[in-house]
Amino acid sequence: MTSFPTQPLSPLDGRYRAAVAPLAEYLSEAGLNRARVEVEVEWLIALTDRALFGTSRLSEVQKDRLRSLYLSFGQEEIDWLAEKEAVTRHDVKAVEYLVRDRLSSLGLDGIAELTHFACTSEDINSTAYALTVKRAVHDVWLPKLRQVIAALRKMAEQHKDAAMLARTHGQPATPTTMGKELAVFAWRLERVAAQVAASEFLAKFSGATGTWSAHVAADPQVDWPLVSREFIESLDLGFNILTTQIESHDWQVELYDRARHAGGILHNLATDVWTYISLGYFAQIPVAGATGSSTMPHKINPIRFENAEANLEIAGGLFATLASTLVTSRMQRDLTDSTTQRNIGVAFGHSLLALDNLLRGLGEISLSEQVLLDDLDGNWEVLAEAIQTVVRAEIVAGRSSISDPYALLKDLTRGRRVGAAELAEFVRGLDIGDAAKQRLLALTPAGYTGLAAELVADA
C-alpha cells in the first residue's frame, strides 16, 4: 500500500479548515510562538525603559525594529524555531535564541543578556497564552457567537406572532409563539456571552517559583512585583501576583466552563430546531446543486444542525477536560498543563465550527406557519388550562358554585382529543358569569399565547 503525501490528521485542519482558519492566527503553534516573541520583546523594552543595570532607553526607531520581530513574524521565523527546537528540545528556549539572534542583526547586542531576564518559561507561556486566548475569544469566537444571537433575535422578532403548539414532555401544551421560543435561546446565550466578554485573562511574571528570587538577587532595590505588574498590565492583561512556578490557570477554568455552558445552550438550540424541522414547522430551503441523500432524491437533510450538535459535544468534552486538568498542578509545577493547553485551539475550533453551521442553518430554513396553525387546530384540548383557571377566578368572585374545576376539565380532556364544537358546548354549560363565558368562547388555541409576542422584546 502506497503512503499518502502529508495529510492533516484533524478535520479542523482538513475538511473544515476554512471555517476555523481565523483561530489559527492565535491558537496554533505558530500563533503561540509569535506571542512568545512579543512577550520577550516587550519585556526587553520594559527593562530598558527603566534603565535597569545601566542600560539606556531605546529610541522609538529601535523599539519599532524590535517590535517588528513579532509584528512581521512569518514562515521564516516558524522554520527557524522548528530547527532550533529540534536541538534545544525546549520551545521557549528556542524563542529566546531567536530573539537573541535578531538582536545581533539589529545592532542591539548590548542588551542581549536582558533577553528572557529572570524569567522562567511559564512567565513567557502564561503571558503568551493569556494574549492568544484573549485575542481568539474576543476577535473570533465571541463575534461568531454574537452573530448567532443576532440571527436568533431577528428570527424571534420576525416570528413573534407565529402561534405554535408547545410540547412539554413532548406532549401538546399551552401554546406559545415560535418567536418567543427563539428569543429564549437568544436571551440565554446573551447572558453567557456577557460573562465570557467579562472574563479575566491573567498572567504571572515572578520567576522560577513565583518569589522573584533571581530578580531580587540581581537588584534588591527594585520593586520587582510592581515592575512585573506594570509590564503585564501594559499588555492589557490581568496580573496574578501569588503563584507557584505556573500561573494557576483558574481564569482558564472559568472561561472554558463558560464556553462549555454556551455550547450546551447551543446544543439545545440545534436539537430543538432539528425537531421543529422534523415536525414540519420549519421548511428547509433547497441549496442549488446540493444532494440530501445519495439514494432518495427528495430529501433535504438538516445537516447544519446535526453537524453543530456533534461538534458541540466534542468541544464540550474538550472544554471539560481542559477545565478539570488545568485546575491542578502538583506542588510547585508539573507539565500536564503543557500538553493540555495545546488543545485549547482544538476545543475552540470545534465550537467555532458548530457556530458557523448554526448560523448557516438558521439562514436556510423558513417558517411553515400553516403547519403551526393546523397543529394548533388539532389540539383544542390545550384550552383546558384556560377554562379551569377562569372558572377558579369566577368561584373566588362569587359567580360560580363549581366545586372542583380542575377535576371537571381533567375528566373532559385528559388523554383524549376535544374539538372546537365540543369545547364550546362544554363552556356554554358552565356555571360562570356571562362575560367570562363569552371570553372563553372567543378563545382559540392560536389566540392562547398570552404575552409571548411582547416577551420577544426582552431577548
Automatic annotation (TrEMBL):
<dbReference type="InterPro" id="IPR024083">
    <property type="entry name" value="Fumarase/histidase_N"/>
</dbReference>
<dbReference type="InterPro" id="IPR013539">
    <property type="entry name" value="PurB_C"/>
</dbReference>
<dbReference type="InterPro" id="IPR008948">
    <property type="entry name" value="L-Aspartase-like"/>
</dbReference>
<dbReference type="Pfam" id="PF08328">
    <property type="entry name" value="ASL_C"/>
</dbReference>
<dbReference type="InterPro" id="IPR047136">
    <property type="entry name" value="PurB_bact"/>
</dbReference>
<dbReference type="InterPro" id="IPR000362">
    <property type="entry name" value="Fumarate_lyase_fam"/>
</dbReference>
<comment type="pathway">
    <text>Purine metabolism; IMP biosynthesis via de novo pathway; 5-amino-1-(5-phospho-D-ribosyl)imidazole-4-carboxamide from 5-amino-1-(5-phospho-D-ribosyl)imidazole-4-carboxylate: step 2/2.</text>
</comment>
<feature type="domain" description="Fumarate lyase N-terminal">
    <location>
        <begin position="15"/>
        <end position="308"/>
    </location>
</feature>
<dbReference type="GO" id="GO:0016829">
    <property type="term" value="F:lyase activity"/>
</dbReference>
<keyword id="KW-0456">Lyase</keyword>
<feature type="domain" description="Adenylosuccinate lyase PurB C-terminal">
    <location>
        <begin position="329"/>
        <end position="449"/>
    </location>
</feature>
<keyword id="KW-0658">Purine biosynthesis</keyword>
<comment type="function">
    <text>Catalyzes two reactions in de novo purine nucleotide biosynthesis. Catalyzes the breakdown of 5-aminoimidazole- (N-succinylocarboxamide) ribotide (SAICAR or 2-[5-amino-1-(5-phospho-beta-D-ribosyl)imidazole-4-carboxamido]succinate) to 5-aminoimidazole-4-carboxamide ribotide (AICAR or 5-amino-1-(5-phospho-beta-D-ribosyl)imidazole-4-carboxamide) and fumarate, and of adenylosuccinate (ADS or N(6)-(1,2-dicarboxyethyl)-AMP) to adenosine monophosphate (AMP) and fumarate.</text>
</comment>
<dbReference type="Pfam" id="PF00206">
    <property type="entry name" value="Lyase_1"/>
</dbReference>
<protein>
    <submittedName>
        <fullName>Adenylosuccinate lyase</fullName>
        <ecNumber>4.3.2.2</ecNumber>
    </submittedName>
</protein>
<comment type="pathway">
    <text>Purine metabolism; AMP biosynthesis via de novo pathway; AMP from IMP: step 2/2.</text>
</comment>
<dbReference type="InterPro" id="IPR020557">
    <property type="entry name" value="Fumarate_lyase_CS"/>
</dbReference>
<dbReference type="InterPro" id="IPR022761">
    <property type="entry name" value="Fumarate_lyase_N"/>
</dbReference>
